[in-house]
Structures are given as structure tokens and as C-alpha cells.
Amino acid sequence: MIDKFDGEYRFLSNFYSSVMKYKGIIYMSAEGAYQAQKCEDEIAKELFMFLNAAEAKRLGRNVKMREDWDIVKDDIMKEIVFEKFSQHPFLKEKLIATGDQELVEGNDWNDYYWGVCKGKGRNKLGEILPSEFLRLQAK
What we know:
By secondary structure, the chain is mainly α. Helix content is 45%, strand content 11%. The chain contains 6 helices and 4 strands; from the N terminus they run E-E-H-H-H-H-H-E-E-H. Strands 1-2 form a two-stranded antiparallel ribbon. The chain has a two-stranded parallel ribbon with strand order 3-4. Strand 1 (17-22) and strand 2 (25-29) form a beta hairpin. It is globular and about 40 Å long. The protein starts with 16 loop residues before the first strand and ends with a helix.
């Protein structure tokens, strides 16, 4: 089991610095791409272009969020994770090399949705990564 996206497994984190293009806009990380999608306004999404992951997360907490966010956020995360690993062959190979290990985004910042904190959480990112792994293998 990989129980934390740190050290040699930092690349699994959305905070990992990996420039990527999503829906025509270049972001500095998957986190930046994800946070930008909270905005309905296409121009507002460009505010996230040059932000590091922490800055993007901070800004994402302060935008006017699209009304359907809770409905679409998981599918958006799947798309972004797929794009991140598709656009970076080296990262794709590292993800594939994790094989069938369980991936858990262990954290201490109280993320109970995307990860697991203090033994509790839904670990949605940890679930998405293996599904994208299978899609990548097929490519």
C-alpha cells in the first residue's frame, strides 16, 4: 500500500509541480487546473494559470463557485488526473509502476473527501488514480 503521496510518491499528488494543459489553458499543476474549474467564467479560470498548487487552492476557496460543483467535481478530477499523466510520459510510467498497490492520499490537513486523515476519509483521489492507470495502460 502507498499510504501517502510524498517522497518518491509525491508525483501522485495534485500538488506535484507538473505543467499541464486542460481545456486550452496551461496550469502549473493538476491542483491549479482543478481549482480553476470551480469557476463558471472562462476568464476567471485564467487567474489560476501561473499559480503554484498552494496558491491555486487558496484562490479556489475564494471564487464564486459554479452551482453544479458537487455534481461535476469527481468527473472533472478524473479528466484532470488523466490529462496530467497522459501529458507526462515519465509520470505515466511511474503511475503504471505502482501496479495493483492500494493508493491512499494520507494527509494531516483534514481532507476527508479526496484523501484519508487520522484513519478516516473517502480517498476519492486514491480511487481515481487506479482507474486512470487502467485507461493509461490502454493507450
